[in-house]
Specification:
By secondary structure, the protein is an alpha/beta fold. It has helices at residues 3-19, 35-51, 68-79, 93-103, 115-121, 136-141, and strands spanning 24-28, 31-34, 59-63, 83-86, 105-110, 132-135, 160-162, 172-174. It has a four-stranded parallel β-sheet, sandwiched between helices. The chain has a two-stranded antiparallel sheet with strand order 1-2. The chain has a two-stranded antiparallel sheet with strand order 7-8. Helix 2 packs across helix 3 and helix 4 (93-103) crosses helix 5 (115-121). The longest helix is centred in the first third of the chain and has 17 residues, at 3-19. The N and C termini lie close together (5 Å).
Length: 175
């Protein structure tokens, strides 16, 4: 996902905002989100992440089930020019530590039910780059003026997804 794909993802949402901002964008088990709501929430979260020091090229890991909050976080991360690192929610211990350390994540967003795993795994020794651990509730509390979308270049990394690691430690697939 270089400049074209990253720009296309955010631009597609912007195009929908311009033409029909109150159209349904996401229906998650009956919880409907409009394009405007996704846009507003992702801009708000991007501002909060930026206030925590997240910027272009930084990795933002997430240990969150598929949800509207995961979609919002994905858009917020792209808006900052940062790199989304979604982590399999079944991972704990060494599997989780490896992906956090290997990716160089500076921020980790976790769903409440995964907080004990993160607490057991995260330390300054084992995940030295990690500066912030936020819950989904913390994400919802982030606030501030909208952030301008970052300028990205061809070849800029947008997403780092890890393999299952069946033949050794998980390997990051760069998109």
């Amino acid at each position: 996902m270089g400049e074209t794909a990253r720009t296309t993802i955010v631009a597609a949402l912007a195009q929908l905002i311009a033409s029909d901002p109150d159209s349904d964008y996401l229906d998650f088990h009956g919880d409907q989100w409009t394009a405007r709501r996704i846009d507003d929430e992702s801009r708000r979260v991007a501002r909060g992440l930026a206030d925590l020091g997240v910027g272009p090229g930084d990795r933002v890991a997430s240990l969150v089930e598929n949800s509207p909050e995961q979609v919002v976080l994905f858009f917020a991360t792209l808006r900052l020019g940062a790199i989304a690192v979604p982590i399999n929610t079944a991972y704990k211990g060494e599997f989780l530590r490896h992906q956090l350390a290997d990716s160089g994540a500076v921020a980790l967003v976790i769903a409440d039910e995964f907080a004990p795993r993160a607490n057991e795994t995260v330390s300054t020794d084992s995940t030295p780059e990690l500066r912030s651990v936020l819950s989904v509730a913390d994400l919802q509390a982030l606030d501030g003026p909208p952030v301008e979308d970052a300028v990205v270049r061809p070849g800029d990394l947008a997403c780092l997804i890890y393999t299952a690691g069946t033949t050794g430690p998980s390997k990051g697939c760069m998109l």
